[in-house]
Design goal:
This protein has 14 helices and 16 strands. By secondary structure, it is of the alpha/beta class. The protein is globular.
């Protein structure tokens, strides 16, 4: 069997869903599990509905809810217009979802309380609606399809807005739920992004979590391949929305893909690769608008021979924190003390560079940052620099590539470099530039290595 994940832009309207149906129809013999995201931008709208309900603007929240309902009803009507009884039943179910959403918004408004638990419940409606409409559309098109609720087998802890998957529970429950669904069907559809606790409470995997769902299902089901269908034809040498003349990479290693996704490439969720590595399942990134293209195939490291620079990724909005203390000089335990503070407040560090008396590091959020810097200031001098961007040059055996540093920094010599980090990885060189310079930096690097 295979897992096929379709992102928000691949299910954004009736035309996109019709393309999905034809793509899936051609792969029925492979017994696909189809994982779908919410329609494009729906999750953002649901978040606004939750926040407006909480801040007292219930009328605004209900107006947004009405707009969402109309969008889903329009799409279902376009997809099922030739089967009126089937359409009427589908529309009735869609309206029921929105009755529940309005009820929750009303409760949030009355209580003036928006917990993470309530937010996860509200955000789950996007995937529940899209999966139901696509399930009905597949069956109407003659594809025997069943639907499985991901909240029953993608099990996480009770971190409601960024659930940590319970691999053992998923390995146990996913085959039971999906094999049961396959008994009467050729295709099973389920939701990405949403998950549940062992006690049946709604959680979500965090933004971009549909990729993660697909990989977790692939791991649990021993899939032959995981397909990520998106709006670009594979992993590109850099973001084609920012730089001209990019090209799709035919094959790349798990390590390269993991580095690219972690350091800002938006084609894959950073957590996607780990479950695939565990079972050595190939991951293929494909374009749902041009399904004839081969995309990018991601394989285990030993099966990919090419070396040198493969791609350039970036994080546009990062924060650089500089920490200085003479107490670091010839003493033990300073870094332990430092990172205990970051761990205490749940702040993840990306890059780090150290000297005898200073540490520079980057984070990609300012959440709890004031609390972190306040505590560190008790034992060190702290400065924080905003409006920075992180650029990563990714490839295999970069440490063995002679002249690489000269080519990288020669190409961008007109721009200021705030921080450089390489030592921990053989497959990426990362550095920090001013945010205003990002586009010109990645364009110059792309010309140097790929044009």
């Amino acid at each position: 069997m295979i897992v096929m994940k379709f992102g928000g832009t691949s299910v954004q309207d009736s035309a996109a869903v019709n393309r999905l149906v034809e793509i899936v129809r051609k792969k029925i013999h492979l017994h696909p599990v189809v994982v779908v995201s919410a329609l494009s931008k729906v999750t953002d709208t649901l978040q606004k509905i939750a926040n407006q309900s909480y801040t007292g603007d219930l009328n605004g929240a209900l107006a947004l809810t009405e707009t969402l309902q109309e969008r889903h009803i329009l799409m279902a009507s376009q997809l099922l217009s030739e089967n009126q009884p089937y359409l009427e039943h589908t529309l009735s179910e869609i309206k029921e979802y929105f009755v529940k959403l309005r009820e929750i918004a009303g409760v949030v408004n009355i209580l003036e309380e928006l917990s993470n638990k309530s937010m996860a419940k509200i955000l789950s409606f996007g995937e529940l609606l899209s999966s139901y409409i696509i399930y009905r559309t597949l069956n109407n098109a003659g594809v025997k399809c069943d639907i499985a609720d991901a909240r029953c087998f993608i099990i996480t802890d009770d971190e409601f807005l960024k659930g940590e998957p319970d691999y053992n529970a998923i390995r146990e429950l996913a085959p039971i739920a999906l094999n049961l669904a396959f008994e009467q069907s050729d295709v099973v559809i389920t939701q990405g992004f949403i998950s549940g606790t062992k006690n049946g409470l709604n959680t979500i995997l965090g933004r971009g979590g549909s990729d993660y769902t697909a990989a977790l299902i692939g791991m649990a089901m021993n899939a032959d391949e995981i397909e990520i269908w998106t709006d670009v034809d594979g992993v590109h040498t850099t973001d084609p929305r920012r730089v001209e003349n990019t090209r799709s990479i035919t094959t790349m290693s798990f390590s390269e893909a993991a580095e690219l996704s972690f350091f800002g490439a938006k084609v894959l969720h950073p957590a996607t690769i780990q479950p695939a590595i565990e079972k050595n399942i190939p991951v293929r990134v494909l374009n749902s608008t041009e399904p004839h293209k081969s995309g990018t195939l991601i394989l285990k490291d030993e099966e990919v021979q090419s070396c040198g620079v493969r791609a350039i990724s970036f994080k546009e909005d990062i924060v650089v924190i500089n920490i200085f203390s003479m107490k670091m000089l010839n003493t033990f335990g300073f870094l332990t003390k430092l990172f205990e503070v970051f761990g205490k407040y749940g702040v993840s560090v990306d890059l780090i560079s150290t000297s005898e008396v200073s540490v520079s590091l980057t984070v990609d959020t300012d959440l709890n940052l004031d609390r972190v810097t306040k505590e560190i200031s008790r034992f060190a001098k702290v400065t924080v620099n905003y409006n920075k961007s992180q650029v990563s040059v990714v490839g295999k055996n970069l440490k063995e590539t002679k002249g690489l540093a000269k080519r990288i920094f020669g190409a961008i010599c007109e721009h200021n470099i705030t921080m450089i980090s390489q030592g921990a990885s053989d497959i990426n060189v990362s550095f920090v530039v001013n945010k205003e310079d990002l586009d010109s930096v990645i364009t110059a690097l792309h010309k140097e290595f790929f044009e």
